[in-house]
TrEMBL record:
Keywords: Electron transport, Heme, Iron, Metal-binding, Signal, Transport. Residues 24-105 form the Cytochrome c domain. The keyword Protease does not apply. The lineage of its organism: Bacteria, Pseudomonadati, Pseudomonadota, Alphaproteobacteria, Hyphomicrobiales. It holds the Pfam family Cytochrom_C. This is Cytochrome c. Residues 1-21 form the signal peptide. It comes from Bradyrhizobium agreste.
Length: 105
């Protein structure tokens, strides 16, 4: 009886372990920001942007409602200066990036 309970418990643990190890939307969003934005923008709560004119991502919510950025990210972010590359993100990437940006508010 005890062996059966242990066996079932072990099987249950093995089944949920991959779900526990999967990165969250916020973690995927941070990785996306690191890969695409960190060259110019500070992507955390404290550091300075490597490019002085690039606003830290933690301040974006002061200029734009974070949820309103989804459409711009889907259509592509284009700016009036050559230093900012054009970016277009998939719906899943947009969700992840917005989830991360909300953690910085």
């Amino acid at each position: 009886m005890l062996q059966s309970a242990l066996r079932h418990g072990l099987i249950g643990l093995l089944l949920i372990t991959p779900a526990l190890a999967a990165p969250t939307a916020e973690q995927r969003g941070k990785a996306l920001a690191r890969a695409n934005c960190a060259r110019c923008h500070a992507i955390d709560r404290a550091s300075r942007s490597p490019l002085e004119i690039a606003p830290p991502l933690r301040n974006l919510h002061r200029r734009y409602p974070i949820n309103s950025l989804g459409e711009a990210l889907a259509e592509g972010i284009y700016t009036g200066h050559a230093d900012m590359p054009a970016f277009e993100f998939s719906p899943d990437q947009i969700h992840d990036l917005l989830s991360y940006l909300k953690t910085l508010e």
